[in-house]
Design goal:
Layout lengths: L24 H8 L4 H18 L1 H6 L3 H15 L5 H11 L4 H13 L3 E8 L2 E7 L1 H19 L5 H5 L7 H18 L6 H7 L4 H12 L9 E4 L2 H8 L3 H13 L3 E3 L5 E4 L1 H29 L12
Antiparallel strand pairs: 1-2, 3-5, 4-5
Length: 312
């Protein structure tokens, strides 16, 4: 049995037919059925909200999944041969979440906020190579830590990677795997998460949903179902979007069968379909985190020659 395998969660690619996100349906179902999945999801949602409030600079500039994926791709390229404008445009366009042209705009934005910096000489007036700054690395590292901590409740060995993220070799080794899986998942989303995927491409879409679920959480099953009251104005203020934008996201959720509007006074019902969609969404995410942690562990020989080797 390898470091990240267990009888309750098969990680072999032979465990049933592989689905569109690259994991076998048996793997996804095993994760969906994991007895600690709800606790992990609660940690992910509460952690994401806390980090949003602690790091507003990142979230003002990376407010939808397309731009977040672009940041992950940038770190992936840096870890696998170098971040160049051409490579970033090519992979961003292939992901399907953000166009190659928009990638150029976001790259400029990342430079303006101090997240990437040019390195080396220019060729024909064009910058040849960029490097993620310490600020970008720290921001994304801490965001990934939240999901690694959640995944470690499902597979405790993942905690070994989370505890070593500050060591110079560990985060790039992790991003070399997570970046590839992120691009693959963006290209081939799971059909059960279609409603969530539509919301995630909206500015602050997922953060709006996280806040709604967090406010409705009474400590029972998570995500919760049933009636809840929400304030469009409060959501708009916290996530720096317009009221009309919040209503657009809510309409997306209603069309997807995730939520139902009950009246004009802010009463909504969170539907069971939302719970099922989130379970699949996080099952795929945690499988990716486990796979990435296992690959980084193997590449750095963590747990074989001792964790100190990762820092050498």
């Amino acid at each position: 049995m390898t470091d990240f395998e267990s009888p309750e969660l098969p990680l072999s690619r032979d465990a049933g037919g592989s689905d569109s996100v690259g994991f076998a349906e048996a793997q996804i179902q095993a994760m969906r059925d994991h007895p600690r999945l709800e606790a992990a999801m609660r940690h992910s949602v509460s952690g994401a909200l806390a980090y949003y409030r602690a790091n507003p600079i990142m979230h003002r500039n990376v407010k939808d999944v397309g731009r977040f994926v672009l940041g992950v791709v940038a770190l992936y390229l840096d870890a696998t041969g170098g971040l160049t404008h051409r490579r970033l445009r090519a992979l961003s366009g292939q992901s399907g979440l953000i166009s190659a042209g928009a990638a150029s705009t976001v790259l400029l934005r990342l430079r303006l906020i101090g997240y990437v910096t040019p390195e080396g000489s220019q060729v024909n007036g064009q910058i040849k190579l960029y490097r993620p700054t310490a600020a970008m690395t720290e921001a994304f590292r801490e965001r990934m830590r939240i999901e690694l901590e959640a995944a470690s409740t499902l597979h405790p060995r993942v905690a070994a990677i989370a505890a070593l993220l500050e060591q110079p070799e560990v985060f790039p080794a992790l991003m070399a795997v997570l970046g590839d899986d992120t691009i693959n998942a963006a290209r081939h989303p799971h059909p059960d998460t279609a409603g969530i995927d539509r919301i995630s491409v909206r500015s602050a879409g997922m953060m709006l949903m996280f806040r709604i679920l967090s406010d409705a959480d009474t400590g029972g099953s998570f995500p919760p179902t049933g009636e809840t009251t929400l304030s469009v104005s409060s959501l708009a203020r916290e996530f720096e979007v317009s009221r009309s934008h919040v209503l657009t996201v809510l309409r997306d959720a209603e069309r997807a069968g995730l939520m139902t509007r009950l009246n004009e006074e802010g009463r909504w019902r969170i539907e069971p379909r939302l719970v099922e969609s989130f379970r699949t969404f996080y099952a795929v995410l945690y499988l990716g985190m486990i796979k990435g942690a296992r690959a980084a562990q193997a590449a750095l020989a963590i747990g074989q020659a001792g964790p100190g080797k990762a820092g050498r």
